[in-house]
Amino acid sequence: MTESSTRDDSTPNPAGRASVPWECSSREVTSSQTAPHEDLERQLIRHAQRPFAKPVAAYNREAFDQVATQLATSQRALILDSGCGTGDSSRLLAYRYPNHWIVGVDRSADRLSRQRADTPPNCLLVRADLIDFWRLAHEHGWEPVHHYLLYPNPEPKPRHLKRRFHAHPVFPAFVALGGRIESRSNWRVYLEELAQALAFHGRACHIESIPTDEPPMTLFERKYRASGQPLWRLISVD
Ligand SMILES: C[S@@+](CC[C@H](N)C(=O)[O-])C[C@H]1O[C@@H](n2cnc3c(N)ncnc32)[C@H](O)[C@@H]1O
After folding, report:
1. In this predicted model, what pLDDT tens digit does every residue of 193-231 receive, in sequence order?
2. Atom number of ligand 1 nearest to Cα 152
3. Rounded to 5, what percent of the chain is helix, strand, coil?
4. Considering all CA atoms of the chain, what is the largest pairwise distance in Å, rounded to the nearest integer?
5. For residue 74, how far is its CA from the centre of ligand 1 (angstroms)?
6. Where are the domains of the chain?
7. What's 41-236's CATH class?
8. How many angstroms separate the alpha carbon of residue 130 from the centre of ligand 1?
9. 162: how many CB neighbours lie within 10 A of its CB?
């Protein structure tokens, strides 16, 4: 028997918005881990004590500089959509907040290349690794008013704890960016861990079910919803 399994990072159908059978076959996350990882606290302490010194990759710096140049053309409040995948949520936010900049970041060029036709001008989609992008954004004084982290890869195997953003050395930079944080997941344990990590850094939050009649914000949310999975969101107001 496998320790845990998930199809959360399965490649979505390029057909995108069409309702197709794969959308209904998404399985719930299963894991031998049913509560926050007992090693999380230790990781949080470690990462708070030692600054994350890994050098920033040139391609991430270039991507960051390009976005920063565009943002400088017009003073607007900023919304970050970290791990935006195909950017559906970034576009939705751009229409919802026409006077804000929305920056959607994902490391997958393939996902970012889909469905770009209707991307409004206040929405910038950028290919970069968040491990570097968050640090650059913080160093350059970015202060997003909202920070979305929608359906991050859950990495549900207990031995993969360190792959989860909140157990990674970059997490203090994520927190330092500030703003209202919203994260969504189909694995509640992920959000419980994120809540623990935010509390460690002095940020309160709550976790609630996402009502089933709310329109999906993202491709993955639509897929999970179509297969009847319970979904949760964590909200932390700055
Ligand atoms: C499960 S998908 C969710 C995508 C989108 N938010 C949605 O709900 O449809 C997780 C996304 O996070 C991206 N991702 C994971 N780790 C990343 C990192 N270190 N930097 C940038 N993107 C990352 C993946 O490429 C993937 O598109």
Report:
1. 999 999 999 999 999 999 999 999 999 999 999 999 999
2. 10
3. 35, 15, 45
4. 55
5. 28
6. 41-236
7. alpha beta
8. 9
9. 13
